[in-house]
Amino acid sequence: MQSFYVEGKISFLDDEEQTFYELMCPKCKNIVRTKIIKGIDCGNCQKHTMLTPRCHFQVQMTDGSGSTTATLLGELGENFFSMRAEQIYDIINIKKDPLPLQCTQQDLANKVFKIQLRNSYCRNSDDALAKLFVSSCVKKHDALQLPTSLVSLDVGESSK
Ligand SMILES: [Zn+2]
């Protein structure tokens, strides 16, 4: 597993299929491929349990050399929306509303981030491709060189 930094912009993928959450067994963190929270007998740890949502989505990162896709997981993703995974699930699956992406997308457009990425090979994936995961993400400066405000976005605070 490799870790490295890039500096660039982040934007959400324009992907209708993106659900922004996944469901997992809270005991063993095994991902279960379903969209609805329900009780399961986990095939991995054999426990009977209730599925738990986890924030999971992909973003596009753009820097001087081009753009690439990376995955945001868990708390890091939740911080992007200032929402818990449970709320994201609620909006998408119960209320059937789109996530309020618009303002976040606009927020992101003017910012440059220092992004720590982790290269990880997915065992379960069909296409054995390396996947990039964002392990931390710190706002570096506004792309427009506006005076930086220290109160914006405390994402990645724990990575110091
Ligand atoms: Zn399990």
From TrEMBL:
InterPro entries: NA-bd_OB-fold, Rep_factor-A_C
Highest taxon in the source lineage: Eukaryota
Ranges where the Replication factor A C-terminal domain occurs: 4-120
Name under which the protein is recorded: Replication factor A C-terminal domain-containing protein
Organism encoding this protein: Capsicum annuum
